[in-house]
């Protein structure tokens, strides 16, 4: 179900709407507002948070600062990892501030709630960090998109990669106890069992846990080949530190993280993080283009390099603005159609396409954290073990996703 139309073709397909939009833009001079909703100060803030706001601003500036003759503004809010808080912010954005698109959305529980609201209000949401599979299956939306990855993609990349390379058969999960962790563990378990592996056990922890000693003792006692971390950000950093303290890898077990971003490796240091296997959609050392983006970002963000979420926000905002320009209107339903029909091209994605369920079909990478000796420059954290094309990374479109034909 790939889409291959160019921006010109989209404009032709949406010609009637485009004329209406062009006429409307002369009288509507209100700003086009894009909202970035994230955990700004809590346990997920290091991999999203204020950095995602900077990335969105960079995309707006690179687009030219205006669309359809209207100034583009970025607004931001702190969801505190609470769906009700996020819903309160976004309701105000939609009803009072006329925000036309919401992005960021690193917490899966928050993202699911916002996608439902955006569907009701016919506004666009582009989920960057959240990986819950439901976002593009049973809770998919004509105006909803999932950009970086999803639970199946990160599970299949890590599980298949390790089982192919090491014949690891038994797995133990340490899982954060909310929608993201549940979804990743469920997808990974299905893949392991399909390959005649087994799950030796699992433990769940609350978001924002500081002490992982008891969890690591359980993982060690399981004697599983792989201890798999289905958590992120501060929880992931604390888990990896505890695994080193309790000698998980030194004792012969392998340690894998389904998602491990630049900020987390930086926080751990290469000496602690070295050898970790994970999934990535972007990293600083990928290419000259990614390094150029990273250097620009760092110059605006206290020297901190971007991670996959910042690259994703930039890509999503830029594609949204291109689609709005092509459609000639800010109507969420119409712009969403244009987004699906236009290829996604930026410093990471080359002619990537968006499926009917809102899933961006992109390349992912199985990577391993380098040792200090292997790292050649600041931010040189990963070596690529395998490139995983979208046809292997992502599950087929689900029968649970019902999108009207007119929205494709």
TrEMBL record:
GO terms for biological process: amino acid transport. The keyword Cytoplasm does not apply. Keywords: Amino-acid transport, Signal, Transport. SUPFAM superfamilies: Periplasmic binding protein-like I. InterPro entries: BCAA_transport (IPR051010), Leu-bd (IPR028081), Peripla_BP_I (IPR028082). Residues 1-24 form the signal peptide. Residues 31-370 form the Leucine-binding protein domain. The keyword Signal applies. Belongs to the leucine-binding protein family. This is Branched-chain amino acid transport system substrate-binding protein. It comes from Bradyrhizobium erythrophlei.
């Amino acid at each position: 179900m790939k889409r291959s139309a160019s921006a010109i073709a989209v404009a032709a397909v949406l010609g009637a709407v485009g004329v209406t939009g062009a006429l409307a833009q002369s009288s509507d001079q209100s700003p086009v507002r894009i909202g970035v909703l994230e955990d700004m100060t809590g346990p997920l803030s290091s991999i999203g948070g204020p950095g995602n706001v900077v990335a969105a601003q960079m995309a707006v500036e690179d687009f030219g600062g205006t669309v359809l003759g209207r100034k583009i503004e970025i607004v931001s809010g702190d969801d505190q990892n609470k769906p009700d808080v996020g819903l309160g912010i976004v309701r105000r954005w939609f009803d009072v501030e006329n925000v036309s698109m919401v992005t960021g959305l690193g917490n899966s529980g928050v993202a699911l709630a916002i996608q439902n609201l955006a569907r009701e209000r016919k506004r666009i949401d582009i989920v960057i960090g959240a990986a819950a599979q439901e976002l593009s299956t049973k809770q998919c939306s004509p105006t909803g998109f999932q950009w970086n990855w999803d639970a199946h993609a990160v599970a299949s990349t890590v599980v298949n990669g390790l089982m192919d390379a090491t014949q690891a058969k038994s797995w133990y999960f340490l899982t954060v106890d909310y929608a993201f962790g549940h979804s990743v563990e469920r997808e990974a378990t299905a893949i392991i069992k399909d390959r005649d592996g087994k799950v030796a056990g699992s433990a769940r922890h609350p978001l924002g846990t500081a002490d992982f000693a008891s969890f690591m003792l359980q993982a060690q006692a399981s004697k599983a080949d792989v201890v798999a971390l289905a958590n992120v950000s501060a929880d992931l950093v604390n888990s990896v530190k505890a695994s080193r303290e309790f000698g998980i890898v030194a004792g012969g077990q392998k340690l894998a993280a389904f998602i491990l971003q630049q900020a987390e490796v930086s926080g751990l240091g290469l000496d602690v993080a070295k050898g970790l296997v994970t999934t990535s959609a972007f990293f600083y050392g990928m290419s000259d283009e990614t390094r150029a983006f990273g250097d620009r970002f760092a110059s605006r963000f206290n020297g901190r390099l971007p991670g996959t979420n910042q690259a994703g926000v930039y890509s999503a905002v830029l594609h949204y603005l291109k689609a709005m320009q092509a459609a000639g209107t800010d109507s969420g339903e119409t712009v969403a159609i244009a987004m699906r029909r236009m290829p996604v091209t930026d410093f990471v994605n080359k002619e990537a396409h968006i499926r009917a369920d809102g899933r961006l079909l992109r390349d992912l990478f199985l990577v391993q954290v380098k040792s200090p000796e292997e790292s050649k420059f600041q931010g040189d954290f990963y070596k690529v073990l395998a490139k995983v094309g979208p046809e292997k990374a992502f599950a087929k479109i689900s029968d649970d996703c019902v999108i009207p034909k007119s929205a494709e």
